[in-house]
Amino acid sequence: MAVYTHIDDTQLSAFLSDYDVGTLLSAKGIAEGVENTNYMVRTTGGTFILTLYEQRVATDDLPFFIGLMDHCAASGLAVPRPIKRKDGHQLGQLVGRQAAMVSFLDGVAVRRPRPAHCLAVGKALAQFHQTAAPFAGHRNNALGPAAWAGLFDESRSEAESVRPGLTAMVDEVLPQLSGAAAGGWPMELPQGVIHADLFPDNVFFIGDALSGLIDFYFACRDSLAYDLAILLNAWCFEDDGQFNVTKGRALASGYTALRPLEPAEAQALPLLCRGAALRFLLTRLYDWVRVPTGALVTPKDPKPYAERLAFHMTVDSASEYGLDVGQ
Amino acid sequence: MAVYTHIDDTQLSAFLSDYDVGTLLSAKGIAEGVENTNYMVRTTGGTFILTLYEQRVATDDLPFFIGLMDHCAASGLAVPRPIKRKDGHQLGQLVGRQAAMVSFLDGVAVRRPRPAHCLAVGKALAQFHQTAAPFAGHRNNALGPAAWAGLFDESRSEAESVRPGLTAMVDEVLPQLSGAAAGGWPMELPQGVIHADLFPDNVFFIGDALSGLIDFYFACRDSLAYDLAILLNAWCFEDDGQFNVTKGRALASGYTALRPLEPAEAQALPLLCRGAALRFLLTRLYDWVRVPTGALVTPKDPKPYAERLAFHMTVDSASEYGLDVGQ
Predict the structure, then answer these.
(1) Which superfamily is assigned to A115-321 in CATH?
(2) CA B23 to CA B15: how far, in whole Å?
(3) What is the pTM of this model?
């Protein structure tokens, strides 16, 4: 969470002159977003978030992310709406970086979600899946199962020093999650655009009411139920590592009220949850063992995701997550 | 410029419940302020800056700073207005730190001030001096001439590695700035509350119109003309180190249009400018040679202030700064 790139008043005014947003009133670099630089910008035309895309976002993917936000905002979802420049484009250049302005959304991220928040985010995820269904853009999941073995190999030599037993755990679960294995990673579930990173940081509330979803920079096409598995990991574990089934039930019921799961999706949920835990374990491990001296951003601890993975390896049925499997 | 202390939604909502500002809508940690943590907070009652005072601000001084802002805002100056809590106090506690909320000011800091900006800030400085005159609070200048020799001793051993010749320059100028020396630091100039840190970072403009002054955390009682000397240093040198007399003339004329200098103040200006350059040289040098590994904040380079000090040591008359000395 850092401002990597500083922009001054002259650069910003020149950038804004390509938009119909009026006169610059204020600009504050904000400590939000791990990958990019974000400014909160006020003009006589409104309040906006200006994002400068730093190195870790593949600029080839930006039209997909921007197009997806545009589609969802136009369809009435509370997501940032990309602002069109006078030339009709939604991407510009600022200080040598690709840059976009989106509408500002009120709301506050919830550090300790309660069941009411889980219910709301489950419902919002289903709404997002339904809204995004007709969106024509395509992006593969660069952090899907095919990437996991290679990702682990890049941190394997440091894994035991992070958490004793981690190597054995990952080596046990990786073959289970192979698409080639019988009973392995399910390839035939309903597909669509998934958010793929809808953590509590990326969901805003005003009181208990959900007010917005942000940060679509991992969105891609994948199994819809995998997105639900990501949320069960991100929203339903307590700080002490325990899975809270009351929160799981709330999240699942919020989702299935709008989009009931097919039997194959419900059956696959434990495996999808293992995959989701492994994906965040591996990317966090990768960053954790590579944190540069003087880094502006503190990497996230991978160990809680090792605990979550260990829990999922004991789960046999989606009902253990609180899903009503109709039995 | 960093968010040192993170506050979550629950902590913030509890803190805001002590104020009559309505419901929390949004809170963003902003990269503003070197010493403290700042959040931009939106509620149904308005937009505010929430400051958490970190270690380098002496909390005993906070009532002076808050009281000064309150006095100036109530007198109509465009400065942050401290918000009163329901109990009437303007300071609270948040995450173990003293904390205050002030009104948000629109405007943008200007990285390369033009003469029009210098004219405006000169005028604003005089307005501030006049407005603050009846303010009863007292705070000594902890970074005044009496502190400079000791401050340099704490960095003396590293000074030559920062800039060859720096030790000799400081050792030459320090005795000139002693209050004890004949023709030394002037002790009898008109006194008042000075801002003492009115750099371009701390002055907001909308277009060419000055919209606000911020960051009163170095304010103290001292010679008013010393504040003008600080501004001549901070606003009127180009990036290549040259003093721009057009900007100096604009700044001085803005100031003297509202508050003409007494002859003794004009006469002392070259010495005051040396002192102001030395003060920022020494505090920047102190921070520069002590930057911890992994620091969130990049210290400011002291070398430009060595160049400015060298320039001031060649100046004999306030007219060289663009001041109309009535001759």
Answers:
(1) Aminoglycoside phosphotransferase (APH), C-terminal lobe (3.90.1200.10)
(2) 11
(3) 0.91
